């Protein structure tokens, strides 16, 4: 019976250790999907006021801005004056990459 109790105690300690490690790991980076920025096309291209869905998607993609800024396919858009204005209008700080 003592061996069984010791084994259960060890199992409990391992389970707690695994739970603590899992809680301390950082979440994976956001999924960068430039297609999610489609609702921001008007504001970025024409300087119109961003919609709620545009701002929501910008917030979700905020961790991807530096990737977009360094990608030749998207750099001119994310670095444009209108993009900066759109990001600011949504209350999102523009990252320094």
Automatic annotation (TrEMBL):
<keyword id="KW-0446">Lipid-binding</keyword>
<comment type="similarity">
    <text>Belongs to the plant LTP family. B11E subfamily.</text>
</comment>
<dbReference type="InterPro" id="IPR033872">
    <property type="entry name" value="nsLTP2"/>
</dbReference>
<keyword id="KW-0813">Transport</keyword>
<feature type="signal peptide">
    <location>
        <begin position="1"/>
        <end position="23"/>
    </location>
</feature>
<feature type="domain" description="Bifunctional inhibitor/plant lipid transfer protein/seed storage helical">
    <location>
        <begin position="32"/>
        <end position="97"/>
    </location>
</feature>
<dbReference type="GO" id="GO:0008289">
    <property type="term" value="F:lipid binding"/>
</dbReference>
<dbReference type="InterPro" id="IPR036312">
    <property type="entry name" value="Bifun_inhib/LTP/seed_sf"/>
</dbReference>
<dbReference type="InterPro" id="IPR016140">
    <property type="entry name" value="Bifunc_inhib/LTP/seed_store"/>
</dbReference>
<keyword id="KW-0732">Signal</keyword>
<protein>
    <recommendedName>
        <fullName>Bifunctional inhibitor/plant lipid transfer protein/seed storage helical domain-containing protein</fullName>
    </recommendedName>
</protein>
<dbReference type="GO" id="GO:0006869">
    <property type="term" value="P:lipid transport"/>
</dbReference>
<dbReference type="Pfam" id="PF00234">
    <property type="entry name" value="Tryp_alpha_amyl"/>
</dbReference>
